Amino acid sequence: MNFPENLKYTKEHEWVSIEGDTATIGVTEFAQSELGDIVFVEIETEGESFAQNEVFGTIEAVKTVSDLYMPISGEIVAVNADLEDAPENVNESPYEKGWMIKVKASNLSEIDHLMDAETYKELIGH
To answer: Is 3 domain-assigned?
Structure first.
């Protein structure tokens, strides 16, 4: 499994990439493999602000629906519209084409409380 070193991770299996004050967020390769075939990603929260750990949407697989949690506080400034027609991008390319949202971070210091790749691998037993 792939866990890029340049990303930060949450215990809810989201990943975060930071560029300036914008965070790109998605779910990890581990999360998509546990969920199975992704059939729908529901994120209707563009333009809304969320606190860290609040639910911003859901991801639906053949057998289950899971909440998506904000790794850091901020306003959702973009949603990956491609996932509407191609939710399988989350399975096939969780760190590139399968990204879910872009967030204008309101408190970048929250990143310091997320896990690095090594700690995340320990959490999931890899």
So the answer is: no
Q: Tell me how many domains the chain contains.
A: 1
Task: For the chain, give the DSSP string.
Answer: ----TTSEE-TTSEEEEEETTEEEEEE-HHHHHHH-SEEEEE---TT-EE-TT-EEEEEEESS-EEEEE-SS-EEEEEE-THHHH-TTHHHH-TTTTT--EEEEES-GGGGGGSB-HHHHHHHHT-
Give the domain range for residue 88. 8-107
Structure tokens at 102: 């872009």
pLDDT digit of tens for each residue in the chain (126 aa)? 899 999 999 999 999 999 999 999 999 999 999 999 999 999 999 999 999 999 999 999 998 999 999 999 999 999 999 999 999 999 999 999 999 999 999 999 999 999 999 999 999 998
Tokens of 93: 């390319």
